[in-house]
Amino acid sequence: MHLVVAGSSLSAQVTAAALASTGHQVLLYLDQPQHFHSLEQGRSLWREPGLDEFFSEQLNSGRLEISLNYTPTASTQRVFLAMAPNQQDEAVELIKKLAATPETDVLLINQSTFPVGTTEYLEALLQTAGKASAKRVAVSLPDLLQEGSALIGFTRPNHLLLGCSSDWAEKEIREILRPFNRRRDNLMVMTPREAEFTKLAITGMLATRLSFMNDLANLADSLQVDIEQVRQGVGADQRIGEHYLYPGCGFGGLSFSRDVMSLAHSLESSGVGSDLLEEVLAINERQKELLFRKLWKYFNTQLQDKTFAIWGAAFKPGSDRIDNAPVLRLLEALWAQGAKVKIHDPKAMPALREWAGQRNDIEFCDTPYDALKEADALLLVTEWKNYWTPDFAQIKASLKQPVILDGRNIYDPNYLRSQGFTYFGVGR
């Protein structure tokens, strides 16, 4: 099929490349001209594992084309709309362009995280200029991709939400996605509004689990309870399960955080409101300051002129992005107290350099152990695999004081304390 994917989002680039890889002829229509050159060279706009190579492969195959222009033709138009949440105006302009071809059948697949009800609104716009004989349908196919594993999430989905009220559109979508839906039928069909709301509800539920566990971890500290034992006990209950129960120093990520805020805004705009979701967001922001508060207390509020080693900057392991990452709040708090930092991350250093700018109170280190030299304590923020089993003897020898603050609970407190470390975890 000839398909169009409109947008510069992570979802747009993954969708375009994945569809092209299965034999479709795909036009990636860019809504932001400044990104054209990078994509034309096969460089993704998103620092996503494997995406650059995958994207370049499809460009070289000729099945994927990038353009700043899109003119609908008389043949059936199948358009994936994968724009950022703040690009509703751009989406409307595209729909008006599609609507201007009244005899053309149009299938609009809305992947964008717009307010609930937007897909129905876009379909109404499509139908304003359509002839009675033309099919004009908009469906919702919410973006469920996880940053850091977006390619696998699209090509091997656990489930897909399809908001659709048209038999013709459903048949078309099933054919387009057939290569990714072979093991079992992963497509859950519902109304467009239900699909849009389900996407936001999933994100809100996951964020609630994370924040609830962080609240429990903070309580565990005061009760002298090891939250790790509690986590395993709670996760063993089949009614709950073990996913998203790991306490830590807060969650980040552009899409995840943005979707939670979008759900909160939707609830507020509707007049319903949600004290729970507001508290979830508040807990997460407080949690980003957890390591700083523990450090502040341990050093009796005297952090000025001290140097701290930080391992991990990315908002999650596997990514080189720092959108809303806990490390940003931590750095700002340390700098405000006159402290210096030495930091290492396997992938996120370029993004952090760009964010921090020119400063003399941060040193970017080539290895984790370089960050330890003459530091007063080690703070672990992102649980990269190469941080899990370090040389603790070298850590102890390098630090001025053998102090470790483990923001992801990846170390064994009893073992570290037996080795002479002062250890602080989250609820441990």
UniProtKB/TrEMBL annotation:
* Primary enzyme class: oxidoreductase
What name has this protein been given in UniProt?
UDP-glucose 6-dehydrogenase
What Pfam families does its record include? UDPG_MGDP_dh, UDPG_MGDP_dh_C, UDPG_MGDP_dh_N
What reactions does this protein catalyze? UDP-alpha-D-glucose + 2 NAD(+) + H2O = UDP-alpha-D-glucuronate + 2 NADH + 3 H(+)
Q: Which residues form the UDP-glucose/GDP-mannose dehydrogenase C-terminal domain?
A: 309-413
Which family does the record assign? Belongs to the UDP-glucose/GDP-mannose dehydrogenase family.
Record-listed E.C. numbers: 1.1.1.22
Q: Which organism is it from?
A: Marinospirillum insulare
Q: Which UniProt keywords apply?
A: NAD, Oxidoreductase
UniProt pathway:
Nucleotide-sugar biosynthesis; UDP-alpha-D-glucuronate biosynthesis; UDP-alpha-D-glucuronate from UDP-alpha-D-glucose: step 1/1
Spell out the InterPro entries in the cross-references: 6-PGluconate_DH-like_C_sf (IPR008927), NAD(P)-bd_dom_sf (IPR036291), UDP-Glc/GDP-Man (IPR017476), UDP-Glc/GDP-Man_DH_C (IPR014027), UDP-Glc/GDP-Man_DH_C_sf (IPR036220), UDP-Glc/GDP-Man_DH_dimer (IPR014026), UDP-Glc/GDP-Man_DH_N (IPR001732), UDPglc_DH_bac (IPR028357)
